[in-house]
Amino acid sequence: MKFVKQFGIILFISFIGEVFHDLIPLPVPASIYGVILMFLCLELKLIPISAVKETGHFLVEIMPLLFIPAAVGLLNAWDVIRPTWMQYIAATFLSTFAVMVVSGLVTQAVIRRKGKKEAENHG
């Protein structure tokens, strides 16, 4: 029953994201509104992490399965993709590389900043 309640909370936040998508005239996907809303609710302690933790872990564990329908959709759209598949591959590799570089740089900056704060507190 705990998982049903936690999944219900996640679905409710996702639904509110859908409502925001319909009300706010920006080209932002509803899922992004939902993720931002969930982040804010967790960060502001409106929803305790324990209220969604187990179901969140479960959803992350099965995430690869959730990509199967998208992959099948790509196969169904192969006639459209075929003329530009190299551009798709290039964009995928370049964006993946860019995300890895930026993530690494941000992580290093956070670690350095945390190290400086700890040095100031102990020094």
Quick summary of this structure?
The protein is mainly alpha-helical and 123 residues long. The chain is 81% helix and 0% strand. The protein folds into 2 domains: 1-66, no CATH class; 74-123.
Would you spell out the secondary-structure blueprint of this structure?
Elements: H1 2-23, H2 30-43, H3 53-61, H4 63-66, H5 68-76, H6 78-81, H7 85-122
Helix pairs in contact: 1-2, 1-3
Apparent shape: extended
Helices and strands, in order, run as: HHHHHHH
Q: How many domain modules? A: 2
pLDDT < 50 runs, ≥5 residues: none
Proportion of strand residues: under 5%
Number of strands: 0
Continuous helix count: 7
What is the mean pLDDT? 93
Cα end-to-end separation: 50 Å
Gyration radius, rounded: 20 Å
Report on the structure:
The protein is mainly alpha-helical. It has 7 helices and no strands. It has helices at 2-23, 30-43, 53-61, 63-66, 68-76, 78-81, 85-122. The chain is extended, with a radius of gyration of 20 Å.
Structure keywords:
extended; 7 helices; 81% helix; mainly alpha; 123 residues; 2 domains
